[in-house]
Design brief:
Length: 304
């Protein structure tokens, strides 16, 4: 399959997964849906690896990094993402995930000593301005609601979404360590997703939430789409692109997906952004494109 086609597949799938997550909300707690999603994805990947003759067992020196990746990428990040979409329009959450382009270089600098260029800092300033415009009115309304005795759920959703982006970026740093230990992308993905689903399952039990199965077809359709397309196919396409063209080029997927997500929110969630919101989104996406206009490998990231 050609690289442009792989790029298009990843963009279309990940651009739609933020809306697909909304189909999971309601009867089932968000954390339980995360367990279902990645347990199914891990099972499919393990079966795929078995079919091509891979040896599934891996030494602990590799498992510990996959455990950490599973906790950050497929645990904390997705619990926060699913919960945040109870309070925020899915397209806005997708725009915030584009900011991972800045979290990644910063974390790479902190943990790996990678240099930070002036382009990252200047683009980051523009991104902060864009986010401020994007959420200016909503934050003001949420603050007024809190002062009048309300709950301010919008602010909670915003904090959760930002936490999800940071957790995903932490996972991306850990991926570097995983790749140093094993080049088998599909198998390491399977183990990381399995660890993530197990850790989230423990959280569900410890927090007193219940495992229950919904009866609605939209939930099951969304679960299958997120597990097979959003988790297995899209990640496989993305990692194949990294191998072919490099992560600093494959990461442009993170610029395209928020645009698709916002358009879907307008069409399917009746989201009606005003002038400030449109300007904020334009600044956010433009800043990401500006940050990525470099050959530095420290600009790498991944998406939902």
């Amino acid at each position: 399959m050609s690289s442009p086609l792989l790029f298009l597949i990843a963009c279309l799938i990940w651009g739609s997964t933020f809306f697909a997550i909304t189909l999971q909300l309601g009867d089932v707690p968000p954390a339980v849906s995360v367990v279902y999603r990645f347990a199914l994805s891990a099972a499919v990947l393990f079966a795929w690896c078995l079919a091509r003759g891979d040896r599934l067992r891996m030494p602990w020196r590799v498992q510990r990094w996959m455990l950490l990746q599973g906790c950050a990428t497929f645990g904390i990040s997705y619990i926060c993402t699913y919960t945040s979409e109870q309070y925020l329009v899915s397209g806005l959450v997708a725009v915030l995930f584009a900011l991972m382009v800045f979290w990644n270089p910063i974390l790479n600098r902190i943990f790996l000593g990678a240099p930070l260029g002036w382009r990252t800092w200047s683009a980051g300033a523009v991104a902060i301005a864009g986010v401020s415009l994007l959420f200016y009115q909503s934050i003001g309304e949420a603050w007024a609601e809190i002062r009048s005795g309300g709950n301010g759920h919008f602010l909670l959703g915003l904090v959760l979404a930002l936490t999800a982006t940071i957790a995903s970026s932490v996972g991306n740093v850990v991926v570097i360590k995983v790749r140093e230990q094993s080049p088998n992308v599909l198998l390491t993905m399977a183990w990381s997703m399995m660890w993530g689903s197990l850790l989230v399952a423990l959280w569900v039990l410890a927090s007193g939430q219940s495992f229950r199965l919904p009866h609605g077809l939209p939930y099951w359709g969304g679960l299958l789409y997120l597990s097979l397309f959003g988790s297995v196919i899209a990640f496989a396409a993305y990692f194949t692109l990294i191998h072919r063209i490099g992560s600093h080029k494959a990461v442009y997927i993170g610029v395209v997906t928020p645009v698709i997500s916002v358009l879907l929110s307008i069409q399917l969630e009746h989201y009606r952004p005003g002038l400030l919101e449109w300007l904020g989104m334009i600044l956010c996406i433009s800043s990401v494109a500006w940050a990525l206009k470099t050959d530095s490998p420290t600009s790498s990231t991944s998406t939902d």
